[in-house]
Amino acid sequence: MHLMRRCLLLLFVGFSAVAVANEPTGSDETLDELLAEYWDFYLAADPVAATAAGVDDYNDQLPSVTRRSQARKRQTLQGFLRRARDVDVERLSAAGRINAELILWELEDAIGGLDLDLARIPFNTFSGFFMRALTASSGIAMQSAQDYEDYLSRLSEIPRYFTENINNMRRGSTDGFVLPQVVIDGVLPTIRAQVKDSPEDSSFYEPFQSMSSRLSAVEQARIRQAGADVIANEVMPAFASLAEFLAEEYEPTDKPGAFQLPNGEAYYAFQIRRYTTLLDTTPDEIHATGLAEVARIRREMEAIIADLDFSGDFAAFTKFLLSDPQFYAESEEELLRRVAYTAKRVDYIMPGYFGKLPRQSYGIVPVPDEIAPNYTTGAYYGAPLGAKNGGAYWVNTYRLDQRPLYEIPALTLHEAVPGHHHQNALALELENVPEFRRSLGFSAFGEGWGLYSEKLGVEMGVYQTPYENFGRLSYEMWRACRLVIDTGIHSQGWTRQQAIDYLMDNTALTAANARAEIDRYISWPGQALSYKLGELKIWELRRRAEATLGDQFDLREFHDAVLGHGELPLTLLDTIVTRYIDDTLTRPPED
What we know:
Layout lengths: L2 H11 L12 H20 L1 H6 L14 H20 L7 H22 L13 H6 L10 H12 L1 H18 L5 H12 L13 H4 L7 H33 L14 H13 L6 H25 L6 H10 L8 H18 L12 E5 L11 E4 L9 E5 L12 H8 L4 H9 L14 H18 L5 H26 L4 H11 L4 H13 L6 H20 L5 H9 L6 H16 L6
Parallel strand pairs: 1-3
Antiparallel strand pairs: 2-3
């Protein structure tokens, strides 16, 4: 752990026992200047992130990822880091100390990724540069002619953007820092699917299908033609070239583990720190935690089977769940209706568990057809405040026989409310915080909160049948298995099939979902650890608050305290909850 961070954490630990002024100080002003400069740099360096943040100055651009631009970026970040370390932490206000801790974490993480040259592996089965291209219009208002011109310019950037990423992957091939063949096989169909017979058939053309009435018919026709031209002549050829490169030139490995890559142990250690925000946790410790959680959850699942008087063992019961028609929708519309009904039931009872609710709404959106075959069961995509749409709860309607209805409550609690939408929308509404904090993402916090929300659904009365509760436990087991499997693959030499078998033996996940999940873990080392480790930390903090506060414990206040500062590293969340406990203990009793 860096010495400056040790000092910050020690200051935080003693924070609640010492009266610290909340008013801004001279050091706060110095830090605020740095944060404003960093935010401007961040937006310019990542135009897609700028659009997502509601800043439209860069809607016509895509990032530069050349080695030269990466070197310049590192130099600039190092300058910010030196300045952040020079800030007089002892003179910061309470809010300033949180900002200082967060910017240090952000800068050190970004520089660490550049030092490892992670640009050589620029995608996984869930996200990456070509997925960012596929959502090039997301966040652009599409109301004015300038909005459409910006979108056209961004589309014209795709060939350059793809070429730069391909060059980085070529370097990875030379270095041996590459993705496994199974990952390439999984994403190639999605990439090839973007090459259509007609540009009008492309998802990139959708913004031109129904254009703003603010534009004249002549202007609409001109823009549509320009869109068709850029898609036909630049976008689709870029996807074709990428597919050709991956199929014919790229040199993937046949071994799935990160530890087998050059400098692989350091790479995996960095990924663990990045995605868990736990500073000293080892793969062996995580593996052991996973095994213990798998055993505990298995006992709870076996108890449900026994209560149902099912005549058969665990394997027979999961086979029954995976094959009986009663558990599956007959149409995409039926699946989406079930999801919508569940979401609204949860919306109705949210005020009983949270003191603060966000203003922003959310909707249920089917996963786009072109990515659905290799996509996860569901996901959440936020929207900036003031956007024409709310947050999007994506639901995969591909292969209905792989989308059991008993999983809908847990999925909805995780992705929508009180999970990702609730947490992300509240973060957007934070007041008096630097802009960079509104876009921070810490996987262990966000995904840990999502998994915590699934279990909170038991208290909320969301699960209405033993099968739905078994589906929840299956989801929890799935995340516990991730601790075992991710560390197994990336530090202990597990094979892909070994990982698939372990997941299938311990969950009610379908074969298609299990394969997609394992390929995701293979392609994205460490990220899968964030869910269970984050959830365990939140439950640890809740139990501490309940035990310390006794009758003074209020669940709504606890939830608001956890979510009240946006996404945080788990170390900092611990400090925030400690302060909430101390403040509650010293609060005068109500009359």
